[in-house]
Amino acid sequence: MEYINADLKVPLLDAIDKYTIILIKTERAMNEKNKQSIANETVFWERVLDAYRSDGIPVKDEWIAVMKECNERLWDVEEEIRNAKKNKLTNEEVGKLAVRLRDTNDERVGKRETMVRELGNDFFETGEKIDEKTPFKLPLHETVDRLSITSLKLDRLKGNKNYPSYEREYAFYSKVVDAFRKDGIDVKQEWIDDMKTANGRVWDRESAIRQGKEGEFGLEEMGRRTLELRDIQMQERIPAKNKVAFAINAPFFEVKTEANHTK
């Protein structure tokens, strides 16, 4: 399916994924402090999906249901990890949770890839002329996050069969950053650098888990790394994202989900 994403809409499968996550946060993690942010974010993702529908792109209810079910299972495992210290889990027990989390996430990625193949489009193709209004672009704090992750892939995964896709993704999010600059927002290089540093530390802790090395390192070490990873996410990555969101008065921010703070 040919589609030119000239108004820089969030790529469809990313939008479906984020929409299902915000639905889960609404059900499980909303409180008075983050209620307005979650409401604003929900409206944003609904508008992105409606924009695709208006363009004649299928946004199937079954895709939303499949992604939500998968993300709910991920949430359940992540919640067990969040509560590991409270529940006095051993590192080996946390390691087993990390393996479940990885396998479920691999399943999620596979389902997304199937949907992309069905659509025949990754929605990174923008054409030469960008719509200056770009009302459906990814919020800046999320864009900086995606840009930095893709930059790490370009640095670290040379020779990977998916490298051309990473290049397309990096070019796409670079255009989104440029669109924010055209909106008059001073996108600071330090935001991008800080985000890349945090995501690099996440990558380093996550790599053994992603690569299925529990047999080599042992579940206890996997659990230790998983708890370190959780701390980096909460203390470095999420604050780096929200620094950007708060600096530009974004309508929503990254809602932290901490142990014992869910509904």
Strand content: under 5%
Mean pLDDT: 93
- Radius of gyration, in Å, reads 18 Å
Stretches with pLDDT under 50, minimum 5 residues: none
Distance between the termini: 41 Å
What is the total domain count? 1
Count of distinct strands: 0
Structural class: mainly alpha
Keywords:
263 residues, 9 helices, mainly alpha, single chain
Characterise this structure:
There is one protein chain. With 263 residues, this protein is mostly helical. It has one domain. The chain has helices spanning 12-28, 35-54, 61-82, 91-119, 140-156, 163-182, 189-210, 214-217, 219-247. It starts with 11 loop residues before the first helix and ends in a 16-residue tail after the last helix. The relative contact order is 0.16.
In short:
By secondary structure, the chain is mostly helical. The protein has helices at residues 12-28, 35-54, 61-82, 91-119, 140-156, 163-182, 189-210, 214-217, 219-247. The chain has one domain (12-247).
Topology:
Layout: H1 12-28, H2 35-54, H3 61-82, H4 91-119, H5 140-156, H6 163-182, H7 189-210, H8 214-217, H9 219-247
Helix pairs in contact: 1-2, 1-3, 3-4, 4-9, 5-6, 5-7, 5-9, 7-9
